[in-house]
Amino acid sequence: MNVAAPLARRPLGCLKASLRQVRQQRGFFRQMASAVSTTTAAPSTPAAEPALDFYKQIDRKTKKLRTAFAVYPTALAAGSPAVPTATTDPVPALHKAQIAKLDPTGVRTAMFAKTRDAAKVGDVLMVTHRRGGEPFAGVLLSIRRAGIDSAILLRNTLGKVGVEMWYKIYNRNVAGIEIVKRRKKRARRARLTYMRQPKHDMGSVEELVFAWKKSRQVFSTSKGGAKKAAAAKRK
Amino acid sequence: MIQLKTMLNCIDNSGAAIVECAMVVGQKRHASIGDRIVVVVQKQRGAQAEGMSASGTGAKVKRGDIRHAVVVRTRQKVTRRDGSCIKFDDNACVLINKAGDPIGSRINGVVGQELRKKKWSRILSMAPMQA
Amino acid sequence: MAPRLPACCWRQHLPSSSSLRSSSQPLVSSVQRTSFFSTTSAPQVKYGWSTLPKRARPTRFNQVTSGLPAPTTGPAAALKRREQSTPVRAGVLAIKKGMTAFMGFTGTRIPCTVLQLDRVQTVLNKTRESHGYWAVQVGFGERNPGNVGAPMLGYYEAKGIPPKQKLAEFRVRDEKGLLPIGVQLLPDWFYIGQRVDVRSNSRGQGFAGGMKRHGFSGQEASHGNSKNHRTIGSNGPSQGGGSRVLPGKKMPGRMGNERVTVQNLPILMIDNELGIVVVKGAVAGPKGCVVKIQDACKKPPPPPEHIEKTLKQLKERFPEAEKHLQAAREKHLELKEARRQKRIEEMLGKSWEPTKEQTEMVKRALAMEEGAGQGEITV
């Protein structure tokens, strides 16, 4: 170790000479070690040189140190103390930032959160589009929760033909989602795909929507608010 | 995904009830909503269903006729630009002539909105509802 | 056809060369490569004799000066040929974190892939002189040193870099694309809207038949077909056609888990804090696979201002890069020597922190050695 100091002080150009010097010094080093009969300590490393971690390879049989290598810490090597690592999953953070931008009031998130008041599969929902057009109403068959990409599946029967629509709940084209009717009993499935079968098909929800609209008008004239349209949101 | 041999419902009043896809027009593997196909009329609308008037006026197409048609509903999901998807429970089409004008004068049943993008506004305006 | 001799060979056979030279000066000027010292030995009897005129005797071949066109094969020609399709800058390694979507203000949905960078550092510059091509080796992540072999531990020790999880190299066009060693590449190496190529290994599909793997049509379901509905059929012509299976014949085998490049993906977002690059569209492979991101080779390189900016940032973030590398190299040499001499245990012993008297002793020894060393070197 006592060769470190002279080595570090000189440029690499005279490395050959330095190595020769090392070789020359080796003999001296041994002499000195034997004379004092203690393990020779290394001199303290130069101030510029930071403390290194050493990885030691131990021989399995003899349990003795076989060799060792210096392992540099990342921050030291990269030069910056704040080194981002892959330990954090960026996708939730990304989703959070996006949702904060697209749903500042949080109503969309709340509507399909796993809470008591949230919409659940089996409920009848109505989706209003931003660019006008007929609102699409249907029974909620499934909710696909995927952060900003979350979507809902609605099913209705329009003119004797079953129609299913997936809507992205955070999309700007979805101007509003309203709960027309809640299911009486909680559905015991996460996805009600069996409702596509003729035996379980709910048929058209137009009557429900009509009744709901009518009741809402009644309420709005009397109270100025709809009881069941609590989750309604407009932009 | 309408391809050779697919059976479709014909939802206009041209007289055809069920047609079979004979070809997809254009370099396409499958036809989707708004795509043009060539069909063979397999089943006419029954005389008893339409009544005497239908048989009296005469259906515009007969069984075995080869006609062009536009797909208006598919069982296959169709994805839109905003990420929403639409899926119908059947495959349906509307017969047209070579020039692209509908043969029938009425459409009964819902049609997909993709027709607007593919410039079938005439059919779209005839439809009672669109989804 | 006999090869054409270069002009310098036959021109001297022309009659009255001196008069021709004087009459048509520009024609000859290209040939006049006069030098005071001839490259060949003087035509003396001592060195043998030749009936050929002096300049017709070629002494060197395939030199620029020999009048031959530049070779179209060989490493130099290959590098030249690929110059335009080689990116100017190195790329980065990242992990595929999964897909999500961006919702635009007009209501459009843009599917995108999240790629995360993790302690991406430059490890080695490969040069034309020593390796035959220009490239930057880049390391990703970090690996437990216990899972790294001794040769690689020594390699990282010499670079002053912790053992990396993954190493990959990125070919660059020329020496301008080389980077300082040990610097960290962050997502702002790219800019939003830039087009990149993303390379990764696709999902392995296992052993697949010809229909799935290569899209063969298969065979008939009926008409006398027996138990050969999804088989690939013929392997090639018989007698007359060589009676052999041609190399590269598409057959059943392992499908997937091969490198797939998706070209020209636009970058939608970069974030240094999260360490992510978000590209539009899909990237091959499962979540958690390592991908290589580099400037698109079929698009013009990033503007020079951006390249300059990123290089400046690298320097600002780690101005000590060169010094650090130099120190690491020296340390490595020293440790290597110690390992060779089996002295490493002493160096790592609990007396790593020396006692007082030891320090005194070492100081004295050092002073003596210093003198001896100086003497040695000056001599």
UniProtKB/TrEMBL annotation, chain A:
GO terms for molecular function: structural constituent of ribosome. It comes from the Eukaryota. The keyword Ribonucleoprotein applies. InterPro entries: Ribosomal_bL19 (IPR001857), Ribosomal_bL19_sf (IPR038657), Translation_prot_SH3-like_sf (IPR008991). GO terms for biological process: translation. The keyword Ribonucleoprotein applies. One of its GO terms (cellular component) is mitochondrial large ribosomal subunit. Keywords: Ribonucleoprotein, Ribosomal protein. Belongs to the bacterial ribosomal protein bL19 family. This is Translation protein SH3-like domain-containing protein.
TrEMBL record, chain B:
InterPro entries: Ribosomal_uL14, Ribosomal_uL14_bac-type, Ribosomal_uL14_CS, Ribosomal_uL14_sf. Pfam families: Ribosomal_L14. Keywords: Ribonucleoprotein, Ribosomal protein. One of its GO terms (cellular component) is mitochondrial large ribosomal subunit. The keyword Chloroplast does not apply. Signal peptide: none annotated. SUPFAM superfamilies: Ribosomal protein L14 (SSF50193). GO terms for biological process: translation. NCBIfam families: rplN_bact (TIGR01067). Component of the mitochondrial ribosome (mitoribosome), a dedicated translation machinery responsible for the synthesis of mitochondrial genome-encoded proteins, including at least some of the essential transmembrane subunits of the mitochondrial respiratory chain. The mitoribosomes are attached to the mitochondrial inner membrane and translation products are cotranslationally integrated into the membrane. PANTHER family: 50S/60S RIBOSOMAL PROTEIN L14/L23 (PTHR11761), LARGE RIBOSOMAL SUBUNIT PROTEIN UL14M (PTHR11761:SF3). HAMAP family: Ribosomal_uL14. This is Large ribosomal subunit protein uL14m.
Automatic annotation (TrEMBL), chain C:
Residues 62-83, 204-255 are annotated as: Disordered. GO terms for biological process: translation. One of its GO terms (molecular function) is structural constituent of ribosome. Residues 67-78 have a biased composition (Low complexity). Residues 219-237 have a biased composition (Polar residues). PANTHER family: 50S RIBOSOMAL PROTEIN L3 (PTHR11229), LARGE RIBOSOMAL SUBUNIT PROTEIN UL3M (PTHR11229:SF8). GO terms for cellular component: mitochondrial large ribosomal subunit. Pfam families: Ribosomal_L3. It comes from Podospora australis. This is Large ribosomal subunit protein uL3m. It comes from the Eukaryota. Keywords: Coiled coil, Ribonucleoprotein, Ribosomal protein. Belongs to the universal ribosomal protein uL3 family. Gene3D superfamilies: 3.30.160.810, Translation factors. InterPro entries: Ribosomal_uL3, Ribosomal_uL3_bac/org-type, Transl_B-barrel_sf. Residues 311-345 form a coiled coil.
